[in-house]
Design goal:
The protein is of the alpha/beta class and 281 residues long. It folds into two domains: 163 residues, P-loop containing nucleotide triphosphate hydrolases (Rossmann fold, 3-Layer(aba) Sandwich); 67 residues, Conserved Hypothetical Protein Ylqf, Chain: A, domain 2, CATH 1.10.1580.10. Strands 1, 2, 3, 4, 5, 6, 7 and 8 form an eight-stranded mixed sheet that branches. The longest helix has 15 residues. The two termini are 23 Å apart. The structure holds guanosine-5',3'-tetraphosphate (G4P). Guanosine-5',3'-tetraphosphate binds next to helix 6. Guanosine-5',3'-tetraphosphate (G4P) binds next to helix 6.
Length: 281
């Protein structure tokens, strides 16, 4: 059932090129990942670009993720040398910690500049992430806190809009859109399940099939609590159980599978099965 997808490579290279250009203006980059997908929502090409760049990895939508699994990933990225922070951009949780986390990453550099007698200048940053990961929500949330002002900064070739978050913290108001890359078909399913890709790139039947098998393996208790699915049911049996329970029926009491697909995906995305994580280490 796994399908290999060709994901607009043209778009991906264009966005990576744009990011590479902008990144030179930054003191630190904020890489926004989906807390449910700490691997699938990362573009592996980005690692090469940010290799020598101070980076803070933000795990957004922490409210929707499985905290135990997220902790494993946080340990993994920290071992790789990255600073990390889990956030919920929608409610604003931990967003006020971003500034000090950036200062911490840059503290040696700031200290060196001070010793050279240089005046402190604002830390400049930008947000990078795949579509729908929450970049605009985070930019809005960050500008709400503090004395946000937008304005052109002279001296930059193409006038960039910066949001002044505080006297020493500036955010580029256009995020870097990163295209996900999936050579591994699983990544495509993970992005589809969480709603990162909406344009029906993958058939819904395949996506729901993958999702229900995944839940059966990793979250059987949640399947039982939500849908009364107990034990090792086949995929179609699971659909039938959910369809009957939720009244997703056509004339003649046949199951309306299309509606069952929507029920399952909506439930997952709205946290009706609790916090879930799809990438495993
Ligand atoms: P983008 O700029 O990276 O493309 O993403 P955007 O901010 O538009 O956010 C995409 C969706 O994710 C939005 O939902 C937004 O409210 C939601 N979102 C962002 N951060 C969080 C978070 O920390 N937790 C939760 N639960 N949701 C978050 P939406 O407006 O309803 O749009 P959609 O879901 O219909 O796409």
């Amino acid at each position: 059932m796994m399908k290999q997808i060709q994901w607009f490579p043209g778009h991906m290279f264009k966005s990576l090129r744009e990011i590479r250009e902008k990144i030179n203006l930054m003191d630190i980059v904020l890489v926004l990942l989906d807390a449910r997908l700490p691997k699938s929502s990362m573009n592996p090409e980005l690692f090469k670009i940010i290799k020598h760049k101070p980076t803070l990895i933000l795990f957004n939508k922490m409210d929707l993720s499985d905290d135990t699994i997220l902790s494993d990933w946080i340990r993994f990225y920290e071992k790789e040398g990255y600073a990390t922070l889990k956030i919920d951009a929608q409610s604003g949780k931990n967003v006020n910690k971003i500034h000090s986390a950036c200062q911490e990453v840059l503290k040696d550099k700031i200290e060196k500049n001070r010793q050279k007698g240089l005046k402190d200048r604002p830390i400049r940053t930008m947000i990078l992430g795949i579509p729908n990961v929450g970049k605009s929500t985070l930019i809005n949330q960050m500008s709400k806190s503090g004395s946000a002002k937008t304005g052109n900064t002279p001296g930059v070739t193409k006038a960039q809009q910066w949001i002044k978050l505080s006297d020493d913290f500036e955010l580029l108001d256009t995020p870097g859109v990163l295209w996900p890359k999936f050579e591994d078909p699983k990544v495509g399913y993970h992005l589809a399940i969480t709603g990162a890709i909406k344009d029906r790139i993958l058939p819904e039947d395949d996506v729901v099939h993958y999702a229900l098998e995944f839940l059966k393996k990793h979250y059987p208790k949640q399947l039982e609590e939500r849908y009364g699915i107990l034990g090792d049911l086949e995929y179609v049996e699971m659909l039938d159980t959910i369809g009957k329970l939720r009244g997703a029926l056509l004339k003649g009491a046949e199951i309306d599978y299309q509606r069952v697909y929507t029920i399952v995906l909506t439930d997952i995305r709205n946290k009706q099965l609790g916090g879930l994580s799809f990438d495993r280490l």
